[in-house]
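FAQ: What does a ligand-bound record look like?

Like this one, built around glycine:
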Amino acid sequence: MQQLEFEQRRKNVMAQIGQGNIGLIPSAPERIRNRDIDYPFRQDSDFYYLTGFNESGALAVFIPGREQGQYILFCREFDEKKKLWEGAHSGLEGATTHYGADDSFPIDDLTDILPGMIENKGKVYYPMGRDSELDHHLLEWINHLKMQSRTGINAPSELVSLEHILHEMRLFKSAAELKLMRKAAQISAKAHIRAMKCCKVGMYEYQIEAEIIHELMSNGLRAVAYPSIVASGKNACILHYVNNDSKLGKNDLLLIDAGGECEHYAADITRTFPVSGKFSPAQKQLYQLVLEVQLATIEMIKPGIAWNDIHQRSIRMMTIGLVKLGLLTGSIDKLIKDEKYKKFYMHRLGHWLGMDVHDVGDYKVEEEWRVLEPGMVVTVEPGLYVQPDCDTVAAKWRGIGIRIEDDILVTKKGYEVLSADVPKTIVEIERIMQEN
Ligand code: GLY
Ligand code: MN
Ligand code: MN
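The answer part, i.e. the structure of the complex:
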């Protein structure tokens, strides 16, 4: 991503914060895995969105109209020893020369410098409750300023959520963001195809997971956007299954929900296919229902349609299908009203996708479900899950879990399926699996 893109975002956010106010946003912290080992660092998405700065121990400050510079970055000072042990880091100079900060200060001096910056500001925009240390300091500084009111210093009178501004911006993807999302989806698609091709009875789920990671990493996606779900047989009925340690049985379906991250942008793709390469008749019938719901709901995507209307259509189609197949009985309207479908289809049709897999942005605006607009990216992921002990249905359906998930960009005229490269019809899947 070019620095110019980050600069434009800061300009935009600065205009919304407005003169006389201040905005603050902290980086993600390092998190300990065990003893002196950290988890791999992942920058906070909001912080990265505005700064492009990929280090912990940093805080970005926005002061619209400040004469000495409006964008200030507090970060770690350059340290030769750190360079030797951990490698390159920006330091104060890098913050201004490479990351476009007008001014930079050591993060260790934050408590000396920042209180002066919030003095006489009206509103403080910041992500409340995200960094408890910052929450605590901020209230302390504000209280301290209040006590100085007789000297003519004013304390800020309002704390405002910065997320509201940022998340609305993040909901609409720019051309540069879409380039990264397309890349994430295309490489993740290759990983799904690899999984289909290498799948064999008797392998373990984690061996398939390894193939997925191999494909992502060797194509330059160094991290998964979320822990991969590789769920065979009845494991697919556990929605967030991540144990991935069962052996693939010859009659099992395999549900894989996996996506890589490309420069902080996620793909989120699910495919479900038979371990043996051939769907059984019962698997075929349920799969075809989920596929038809997915295709029909994707087809509805265009600017101006309410996202919830698409979800409602998925509920109706699922309910009709479940009645046809005999998993539910009764009147369609009553089954929908009583939410009987939820026994088999218990999650929503999809979600926003972006830097975070369950991306930010309001789904309702002034209590109305939001309509789709060009530049938004959603997942469409209907699923059916028949619990293994579900004794209200015939035995042949039990323990089957199916989800099909694609990543869809809303365009001016309709939609673009970013993850279109992974096959999903029964014929295509059976063909690709038999190629080996
Ligand atoms: N992979 C998480 C989801 O599909 O929502
Ligand atoms: Mn998913
Ligand atoms: Mn999803």
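Follow-up question: can I read anything off the structure? Yes, for example: Residues 268, 351, 379, 381, 405 surround manganese (II) ion (ligand 3) (CB under 6 Å).
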